[in-house]
Design goal:
single chain; 494 residues; alpha/beta; Immunoglobulin-like; Rossmann fold; 3 domains; four-stranded antiparallel sheet; four-stranded parallel sheet; 13 helices; 11 strands; 56% helix
């Protein structure tokens, strides 16, 4: 995405919105809620208290339990709109006209017709960002599906779509700049709350899946990662509401004073948690999408080598179900390629010997391949690696030593939940290889995918930390603007 273009667009929209704001703000319509069911409009006195002709009252009408007052600016100065019904009702609304004839109610951050221009400008900007993200997404995925950039683009796009949908109903409803700032500030928390039912039901499902996993695989905290992540998202979503509820009842901190600092510290904490949870949820949704997309990807039948990523073997040296599925996936691909193009493929089993294993994983895979009829000359074993990075690195070195081809075409075979992260590692190493994924049991897949998500978050932690810090800076700026608006009288009477 062209950062310069979006900077210029932001400035252009700001200038255009400011011009429209000035043109629209010469008049103002006040919708004041009252009790017109028991009283008629004639029972109310609507007038402007002013030393000179600052504001004119153009009309007073009755709406649905609302008094509608239309005003026009005449010249710079201050005035007070009064709506009275004897001793029953009295409403005082501060008015001010700024140069050239900008009429606002309740302070400069208060109500004005012109602020709608900024709402529309923000919506247009979000739409432009989404269009740019969509173009970047298509280009990036076509270039290489195994890029973390894809996840970031899609994650941001998901959140921007929500911002667009969130802006549309409020675009013409929010008349006060304070309301617009608060609406933007609370977007993260609103997103999380809307997603809460989906994540809550998914979390319950994952808990039962993890309990079944522990029954099959043993009790340890690794087998509860899915439930732990779900609990973190659930509690993170509810934390702002719980904190607000507690602070409203406690006397330890005064969060009721609009001019005090405590209210805005609370506002910063609540919305910071909300935006972080929303960000992580968006990244999670994007990761799930690419995890599924990568696992279901079907490479072209033109490959020279298929690298089989090793994992734990049984005590007797036979393949576990997980490793057998990876190997069978590679064999199946080789058979389909042979049938489609007649081209043979060389198998590269990869994996060293763990401290609790009787032989290297590569040797165990090799034995299995030989047992099902794969010729020995089509097997090239790499038996020194201890993790996925070394699987890829050592195997590619071995392949390059064994062939005269400048760029041999290689795929790797692993379990479905692991394809995307293995592909990310390969891309990070400068390797242009594709992956295929074998199926695994659902109760195992869910928890394993959560592990992959957490591992990917950690491996890309620098970019996540930078983005979170930028989001926190944006929250701090909005809270500071609201604090200044109340503290220095930029908004009153709301």
């Amino acid at each position: 995405m062209n950062k310069k273009f979006y900077l210029i667009l932001a400035l252009a929209l700001l200038v255009l919105a400011s011009v429209v704001f000035v043109l629209m703000s010469t008049s103002l319509t006040i919708h004041d809620e009252t009790n017109l069911q028991n009283y008629s409009l004639e029972d109310y006195r609507v007038w402007v208290e002013q030393d000179q002709e600052i504001v004119s009252v153009d009309s007073v009408e009755a709406g649905d339990n609302v008094i509608i007052v239309r005003l026009s600016a005449l010249q710079r100065g201050k005035a007070i709109l009064r709506i009275e019904n004897g001793d029953v009702f009295s409403r005082v609304i501060p008015l001010q006209v700024y140069y050239p004839k900008i009429l606002v109610a309740d302070g400069i951050f208060g109500r004005s017709r012109g602020y709608t221009a900024f709402s529309v400008a923000i919506l247009i900007y979000f739409l432009a960002i989404f269009a740019g993200l969509l173009r970047a997404y298509r280009k990036s995925v076509r270039s290489n599906i195994y890029q973390y950039r894809n996840v970031m683009i899609l994650g941001v796009a998901i959140f921007v779509v929500f911002l667009i949908l969130n802006r549309i109903p409020d675009m013409f409803r929010l008349e006060a700049l304070e309301d617009l700032l608060r609406n933007i500030l609370s977007s993260g928390g609103t997103f999380s709350l809307l997603m809460l039912p989906v994540f809550f039901l998914t979390w319950i499902y994952i808990i039962f899946s993890n309990l079944y996993l522990m029954k099959k695989e043993g009790r340890n905290w690794h087998n509860m990662l899915g439930a732990i992540l779900g609990a973190a998202i659930f509690l993170g979503t509810l934390f702002p509401e719980l904190l607000s509820s507690w602070l409203q009842r406690t006397s330890l901190v005064d969060v009721h004073n609009e001019r005090g600092v405590a209210m805005y510290v609370e506002l910063f904490i609540e919305n910071s948690v909300g935006i972080i949870v929303a960000y992580l949820e968006s990244v999670l949704l994007a990761t799930i999408w690419f995890g599924i997309k990568a696992a279901r990807h079907k490479p072209a039948f033109d490959k020279d080598y298929v690298l089989i990523l090793g994992c734990q073997i049984n005590e007797d040296g036979s393949l576990t179900n997980l490793l057998k599925a990876r190997t069978d996936k590679a064999v199946d691909f080789a058979a389909k390629q042979k049938a489609a193009t007649g081209k043979e493929i060389v198998f590269v089993p990869s994996g060293g010997q763990g401290s609790d294993e009787v032989m290297p994983e590569a040797q165990a895979i090799r034995n299995y391949l030989l047992s099902i009829g794969i010729p020995e000359e089509r097997i090239l074993a790499e038996d020194q690696s201890v993790n996925t990075y070394e699987n890829l690195n050592n195997s590619m070195k071995l392949i390059r030593r064994s062939t005269d081809q400048a760029n041999p075409k290689v795929i790797f075979s692993t379990t479905n939940y692991h394809v995307f992260r293995a592909g990310l590692l390969a891309t990070g190493m400068g390797l242009k290889i594709e992956g295929i994924g074998s199926r695994t049991r659902q109760y195992f897949w869910i928890n394993a995918f959560v592990r992959e998500y957490i591992a990917t978050l950690y491996s890309e932690r620098k970019i996540h930390i930078r983005i979170i810090l930028l989001l926190l800076a944006a929250v701090l700026l909005l809270v500071a603007l609201l604090f200044a608006a109340i503290r220095y009288g930029l908004v009153v009477g709301i």
